[in-house]
Structures are given as structure tokens and as C-alpha cells.
Amino acid sequence: xxxxxxxxxxxxxxxxxxxxxxxxxxxxxxxxxxxxxxxxxxxxxxxxxxxxxxxxxxxx
Length: 60
Hints:
Structural class: mainly alpha
Number of strands: 0
Number of helices: 2
Order of helices and strands: HH
Helix content: over 70%
Shape: elongated
Strand content: under 5%
């Protein structure tokens, strides 16, 4: 298991960094006048969550 985690470490790290950026953008858009923009960004944020879970081969 450690060997497979080592192989996936670099790509998953990139996904984590992208997720941090998406989370910051999404949180900034949660003001009342920008709710629509936040909602449209939510799909990308959820995709990043799924990508990381797939990369780690776990959902928890």
C-alpha cells in the first residue's frame, strides 16, 4: 500500500492545491450578491473532492 501511495503522491498533491484554490474562491463568492457564481463553482469543487478520493482510492 505504501508503494502505491508513493506513486500517487505527486498527482494527488496537485489536486489538493487546486482544491484549496477552489475553496478560497468559493468562500469569497458566498456573499448574497454572488450566490449564483458560488453555485456555478460548486461543480468544480465537488469534482476535486471526487478526484482526490479516487486518487487515494477511498471515499472516507
